[in-house]
Amino acid sequence: MKIIMEKEYLIKKWLDNNLSPSELEAFKALDDYESLVKLSKYTKRFKAPIVNYEEALNAVEQKINFNKTDSNLWYKPLLKIAAVLAICFGTYYLTTTHNSNYSTGFAEKANIELPDASTVNLNAISKISFNKSSWKKQREVFLEGEAFFKVAKGSTFNVLTNSGIVTVLGTQFNVKQRNDYFEVSCYEGLVKVKHNNVSQKITPGQSFILFNNKIQINNSITTNQPEWLSNISAFKSVPLTEVLSEFERNYNVKIVSKNIDLQQLFTGKFPHNNFIVALKSIVEPLNLTYSKKNKIIFLKRE
Amino acid sequence: MQKKNNATICERFLFNAFFKNHYKDLTNFLYYKFGERLNPQDKMQEAFVKLWENCKNVPPEKAKSYIYKVATNLMLNEVAHQKVILKHQKKITKHYTVETPEFLMEEDEYLQKLETAISNLTEAERVAFLMNRIEGKRLDEIAEILNIGRKAVEKRVYGALKKLRKEIDGI
Q: Is the CB of A46 less than 8 angstroms away from the CB of B157?
């Protein structure tokens, strides 16, 4: 009886991807090991077909517009009166509910002041959006990309991103949300990061990093504000693919690599205002060679 | 401590972000639950459209369960108790072949058995099992999406595994 229970216990942990190293050894020693692994492997062939993000989003957006014009048809006689009223109230409506949007392009940075004298510094290729008139009730900013926040003390301040929500009361912190890499760094005060309904608090000097569905808390910050504000991109054990993306954003080039492990962790820095030095800072420590054609850089192993 | 939240998903920015976060999982969920014949992609899109149309009445924290409920109902309206068939994907051809014809034939037989066995699972078992094995979702994640307890998910996934092994390996 005990042997059967142990087997069931191991299999359940294997299903949850939760085997400790010693449990894994025990699991591999089971008679059923081979057939379980085979079953698991072939089950993956029944994967749902891939959904194309752009196509799906376009289809949804089209359906939304299409539906709107349909329901407008029977309002047509009233439209003329409504139009006049709309013009009168239009400006009032826009000034109270319209969102303020700020965005940066390649190699661009921006400094934005929020309604309560909090400030936001935007790094290249980043976008923020917030509502001025509802600021007193709720301090909320939507962010795509990277920004350094200096938040004045007050009510809860929220930064919404695709990867999670960052909440503070009054403090200084950096949020970086790029593709699959999400990093929140705390420079002062207390910062709460919420991802998939799980909250994590970080204190000054700590970073919350989410990459490849793994969460890590690092205690590695030594400066009192992010280095990109001084025009330097600094990385401590960051996947190379993210380092190259940051380079592309700051120099408006495209990098093509061959035979290079893009998941390897990179520690180092590069400046934003010296192309050759910046490129060498990445290429030399990793023993790579590069060639440049117009706006494309080719990297390969030496 | 009550936090007054007036946010909705009516903002295009937020709606798009929400879409990006959930469109894949929702479509996969529909596929595993209902198969491919009833066009899971279409129902997924309809659910998001409905969310936008009702965005004022759906608080952001309820949005996820809203789209899952709407999409499932849309599917149920069309389902006619058809047996759910999931097609396995043809293997991507390599430039060289190491496998013998015998191996490929055995592999195909195994896949057929597996296909039948999967369609013999209950819907609940199938959805949970495929989300776990194919999408790599952990039991807690599945519990959150399906809005059931972790033990219930474990029962479904493990139950599915036992049934499949019985049908395929005779254990």
A: no
3-state secondary structure (DSSP) of residue B39: coil
A209 and A157 in a single domain? The answer is yes
* ∠ Cα B103 B106 B112 (to 5°): 140
**Rounded distance, CA A16 to CA A76, Å?**
58
Q: Is A67 on the interface with B (CB under 8 A)?
A: yes
B90 secondary structure, DSSP code = P
How far apart CA B85 and CA A110 sit, in angstroms, is 54
Q: What does the alpha-carbon distance between residue A234 and residue A243 come to, in Å, rounded to a whole number?
A: 9
Fold of the B101-169 domain: Arc Repressor Mutant, subunit A (1.10.10)
Q: What is the pTM of this model?
A: 0.47
What is the ipTM, given to two decimal places? 0.78
Residues 6 or more apart whose Cβ sits within 8 Å of residue A157? A118, A139, A140, A141, A149, A151, A167, A168, A169, A170
CA dist A237 and B162 (Å) reads 42
Q: Looking at the partner chain, which of A11, A46, A142 has a beta carbon nearest the beta carbon of B13? A: A142
How far apart (Å, rounded) are the C-alpha atoms in residues A182 and A239? 12
- CA A280 vs. chain centroid, Å, equals 27
Question: Distance, in angstroms, between A144 CA and closest chain B CA?
Answer: 10
* B114·A39 Cβ contact <8 A: yes
Same domain, A11 and A75: no
Domain shared by A283 and A197, yes or no: no
Note every long-range contact of A91-96, with CB atoms under 8 Å and residues 24 or more positions apart, other chains counting: A95/A133, A96/A133
pLDDT, tens only, A140-187: 999 999 999 999 888 889 999 988 899 987 789 999 998 878 999 999
Cα–Cα distances (Å) from A39 to A215, B138, B166, B167, in that order, read 30, 18, 12, 12
